[in-house]
Amino acid sequence: MLLHGPNGAGKTNLLEALHVGTQGFSPRARSDAQMVRFGATAGRVTLRGTNADTPFEADVVLATGDARRARLNGERLASAERLRHELRTLVFTPDRLAVVKGAPATRRAYLDRSLGRLSPARAALPVEYAAAVGQRNACLRRLRAGSSSPAALEPWTERVVALATALVLARSAAIATLAEPFTEVAGALGLDSAILGYDGVPPSVSELNARLERDLDRGLTGAGPHLHDVKLEARGHELRSFGSQGEQRIAVLALVLAEAEVLRFRGSSPPLVLLDDVLSELDGDRRQALAAIVSRGCQTVITATAAAALPAEPAQTLTVGPGVVR
Ligand SMILES: Nc1ncnc2c1ncn2[C@@H]1O[C@H](COP(=O)(O)OP(=O)(O)OP(=O)(O)O)[C@@H](O)[C@H]1O
Ligand SMILES: [Mg+2]
Q1: Poorest-confidence range of 18-22, 73-77, 84-88, 204-208?
Q2: N or C: which end of the chain has fewer CB within 10 A?
Q3: Helix %, strand %, coil % for the chain, to 5?
């Protein structure tokens, strides 16, 4: 589906609403107040669709200063983000360039969300690991202050190591699943020899014990997957430092589309793919390649300022103007 209209018409707003309505949160707004119409105190997204041939209705209510509320088929969900477990949506927005350009923490966060979608049973691992590191750090600080004994640290070290091992395994498995389609999609979009990899190994108990003096000084656990990185390279060079703007964009796009390729064959229905402003910085050949990839099977919504930017005939074209969609 193509959404087109001039700058400021509301295309990204509409895409954002699709994301909020299917995932329970916005890919761009930092607070709900940003999503509620100026001058109003509440907003609502109601979506009707089919998932694995079964009709569904999702409803998310946003109110300034109140928690988001969501219903799926009339039933209240414990939290709006529970929608993520029911409906799958992948999104590219220009902000996502931070996945390539930004700090390792942004790549880790992106990978952990992918990991949750690719293997839902392991979705809680990143949070469990972070909680264990937090507890161990608190224990390190008590030890430094003399209010705890080294023996009290031991169980935390063991727990951190066990969860670190499981997390690195899960992350590596997610990367291994995405690596081939990533290289393939990036190649089709003109970014040759692109490589996706995981950079880090889980720490052992003896490694953490060996660095105890340093960790006590800082009150922080100084090794583990909370410090690892995702490797993104093309033609042997790190894209973060050496990629052009367009190449970095293609890499992020390839990450999203590679995951869509994988998810398409997993679960009961393909994910919804939202691509905001992807066409603007791609040359003609790359637009053509993108159009071929997105017609492979996921329902995809693409925004553009001009309908002609998409070199393919979309199944549906919506013209977006301020306050109206035709
Ligand atoms: N909370 C809000 N209430 C009302 N209007 C808002 C709110 N937040 C943003 N807007 C306005 O919505 C308009 C449309 O924004 P949107 O980002 O969807 O445009 P767009 O069609 O994607 O434009 P572009 O082609 O430049 O990306 C903007 O003019 C913006 O000021
Ligand atoms: Mg926009």
Answers
A1: 84-88
A2: C
A3: 50, 20, 30
Q: In degrees rounded to 5, what are phi and psi of residue 218?
A: -95, -15
Q: Whose CA is nearest to atom 26 of ligand 1?
A: 7
Residues paired with 60 in a beta bridge:
45, 70
Rounded CA separation 136/87 (Å): 35
Sign of CA dihedral 294, 300, 304, 308: positive
| Ramachandran bin of 168, using left for φ above 0, alpha for ψ from -120 to 50, beta for the remaining angles | alpha
The answer to whether residue 320 scores a pLDDT higher than 90 is: yes
User: Own/partner pairs for 232-235, CB < 8 Å, 24+ apart?
Assistant: 232/100, 232/107, 232/194, 232/195, 232/196, 233/194, 233/195, 233/197, 234/186, 234/191, 234/192, 234/193, 234/194, 234/195, 235/192, 235/193
Residue type, 292: A
Does 9 contact ligand 1 (Cβ within 6 A)?
yes
Residue 155 CB neighbour total at 10 angstroms: 12
Residue 262: what pLDDT? 95
21 C-beta closer than 6 A to ligand 1: no
Report the nearest-CA residue for atom 1 of ligand 1: 37
pLDDT digit string (tens) for 249-287?
A: 999 999 999 999 999 988 878 999 999 999 988 889 999
- Residue 295 scores a pLDDT above 90: no
With the most atoms of ligand 1 within 8 angstroms of its CB, the residue from 13, 28, 30, 280 to mutate is: 13
Burial class for 65, CB neighbours closer than 10 Å (0-12, 13-18, 19+): exposed
**Tokens representing 295?**
């017609």
The residue type found at 278 is V
- 58 pLDDT band, cuts 50/70/90, is very high
DSSP-derived letter for residue 312 is: S
User: What does the pLDDT look like over 177-201, one tens digit per residue?
Assistant: 999 999 999 999 999 999 999 999 9
Residue with tokens 């919804």: 272
